[in-house]
Amino acid sequence: MSSPPPAKTQASAPAEAGLQDIIVTAQRRSENLQRAAVAISAVSGDTLASAGITRPTELTSVVPSLQVAPAAGPYALFYLRGVGNFNGNALSDSAVAFNFNGVYVGRPSSTTGFFYDLERVEVVKGPQGTLYGRNATGGAINVIPKRPDFDKASAEGNVEYGNYNALRLDAAVNVPLGENVALRAAGIYVRHDAYMKDGTDNQKDGGGRVSLRLRPTNTLSINLTADYFRQRGRGTGATPLGLNPDNRDGFFSPAGQAFVNGQVDQVLGRTMVAQTTPQFLNNSYWGVSSTIELNTPAGTITVIPAYREGKLDYLSYSPGFYIRQVEKDKQTSLEARIASDETHPLRYIAGLFYYDESNHVPGSYINQQASVNSNVADQRTKSMAVFGRLTYAIAPTFRVTAGARYTTEDKSLDGFTTAALRLCTRPSSFFPTYVAGCPTAQPIAVSTAIPSVVPTPNFNPFIDGTITTLAIGTYQGLKAKRASFDRITYRAAADWDITPRNLVYASYETGFKSGGFFQTVDRGVFRPERIGAWTLGSKNRFFDNRLQLNLEAFYWRYHDQQISHVVADSSGSQILATENVGQATFKGVEVEGRLLVTRSTQLTADAQYLDARYDSFVYSAPNNNGGRDNGTACATRGTPGATYVIDCSGRRPPNAPEWTINLGAAQTVRLANDGKIVGNVRAHYQSRTLTGLEFTQVEYQNAYWTADAQVTYTAPGSRYSIGLFVNNAFDKTVLALATPVPFTSYYAGALRPPRTFGVRAGVKF
User: Fold this and answer.
1) Which of 191, 199, 599, 644 could form a disulfide linkage to 638, CB 3.0–4.6 angstroms apart?
2) Please, what is the average pLDDT of the chain?
3) d(Cα 678, Cα 655) in Å, to the nearest integer?
4) Where is 261: in which H helix or E strand?
């Protein structure tokens, strides 16, 4: 079997003969997207660049089934068809596996910095329990960079300037160093001013990547890659949702501070105090990996050793309270597999996977005015898996597949947590007739340096009427938390070529995400989650290869979903806990269409209908933010000032809109000088979407449309190009994430970008 070709878009016939084919590697072998019996969306690197995508949160605009929201600091929250979870610290994992250049990236805080000089991004939908395994209950995202080219030297550069003083510079150079050696280097710099009036939601990123490709023999190829990326600026901002989000005030603006100063702190016994300490990002990431491919008579052997590090140092106020985090993440991984060729009736893939990750958190500090938490943690994860998949062609056009994966994980957590709670002890009543009992109480001061101790406890009321309690949880040495998890996941599938251009497939696959820990004075352990998914699909080309119509129906059952949110532990402290919350059902239909109207006109459409329900969803909250008195149907049990138990069974999960639709049109006008003008229009629709976990009305983003457009002139020979672009042309304000602010009754809201526009130019040699 010959070595798999570099991932790229290939034409199966001249352009006038029909639509181009896209080659993908989602199933660990190179294959035509239209022949891959799996639900997958592929977005080319050119499309990503034209859409201005530099961060994972922006993928939502080009893949309807994918929702990615910004969270505190560098964190991104991934949901595929409603399956996902809130990942807010180093102890929580995503339910959607993120892979760069074939390497699994474990931390949701480390998924930025890759979106330049790309071949494509593949989004595989549904659990990938056999070929991907770890933390792929919702699916997988594969970011695939361009490989060095042996054939010719080339260089390209692009510059983009727009409103908000936005500047993007990216460049790449490819240099053959011999017949069988090539080097490719690429880099990016991105900046823009704040989208929020308070100076937050800005961007200042930069990074680079170097790849060396060798072909020592006709049967052996080696690709070495090293990358580096850094984040600066203020990071993700948020605004009080009691203000008009269209104004994008932010918490540090005069309007935001005035709003906060008028809100009641239910525990401290006075009004809130607006914070003024500015937030910041000072994060960096780097990694090295190698992809080694050896062709043998038994099949292609692929070995991918990799090492990655992330260093986080940030202060964020996006959830409505301060989070100060210092963290160092290290991961070592190795995947080895063998894949047979496609010429025999029996085909196979078999492999081993090893993953070793350490998360060192010398300081994590959360300040909520009446409560502070100071944490030190060292978490270690060791994961090993063996997997295999067999496909047998019963007939040349009909195949059956069976696969399985055994995963075992060992996790440990050493560290301690200290939490202080400042309470007003004077008589007072709470909602809805709250009267401040301690109007002169002093909030616990914010510290930009992570404190090693928290305020001294004092059970004799101060002159302001408050007491300060202290709780300490230690899990070190013999008391360290330890847990092991293992699971067999499997796949059964069949696919049938009705004609050479019409494929029907069906599958059932399971997924598994291991349990883990969270920091609290209590036990702080959560169970694994699992999912089972039925899929029935069809991929088709009609009318002389000019119409592509792909359809898929799916039915998923999700058990023990892990939800991370703010709760009160037994000490009364507000913590970010992860809980298992019963089960949910996701079912729906997705239709993807492409139509080549003429040689110069192409239309695209992608629509997904999703019926999603929590069959059982019961959780706890430190106040009644999820109760009926806030306009939801969730049943609550509890008393004012205490922890509430909230039952939202039967509700639609967050980030699971009923309808998502992407529409697109591209028109090419060829000029007499052999140059061309290309115009592109994209539109994205999304029905009403829940952006938080409390099911309050303020957490819902109403249905909306956004539209992007660009027009580009390309000179003869495609050497030069210049164009104009606009994204979110109608300046729609879209809520991406809503978070309840503890001890009070208002919410913080993170927003997607406003209207951006500008000019971009490129050159190729």
Assistant:
1) 644
2) 88
3) 34
4) helix 254-261
* Percentages (nearest 5) of helix, strand, coil residues in the chain: 5, 55, 35
573 backbone dihedrals φ, ψ, rounded to 5°: -80, 150
By mean pLDDT, which of 53-67, 339-353, 409-423, 432-446 is the weakest? 432-446
> Residue 226 pLDDT > 90, yes or no?
yes
What pLDDT does 460 receive?
Answer: 67
Q: How far apart are CA 368 and CA 443, in angstroms?
A: 9
Q: Contact 719/163 with Cβ under 8 angstroms? A: no
H helix runs in 28-127, sequence order? 45-50
Question: Taking the CB of residue 275, how many other CB atoms lie within 10 A of it?
Answer: 20
Measured CA to CA, the distance from residue 624 to residue 644 in angstroms comes to 6
- The DSSP bridge pattern shows strands 371-395 and 346-367 to be antiparallel
Are 649 and 674 within 8 A, CB to CB?
no
Q: Give the whole-angstrom CA distance, residue 267 versus residue 371.
A: 9
- Residues found in the chain: 765
Q: Is residue 2 predicted with pLDDT exceeding 50? A: no
Report which of residues 629 and 436 the model is more confident about.
436
Q: What is the rounded average pLDDT of the residues 424-436? A: 56
Contacts of 101 (CB under 8 A, 6+ apart): 143, 144, 145, 225, 289, 291
Exposure of 582 in the CB half-sphere (CA atoms within 13 A): 15
Tracing tokens 């070495």 back to the chain, one arrives at 224
DSSP single-letter state for residue 85: -
C-alpha dihedral sign at 521, 694, 111, 207: negative
12, 546 in Cβ contact below 8 A? Answer: no
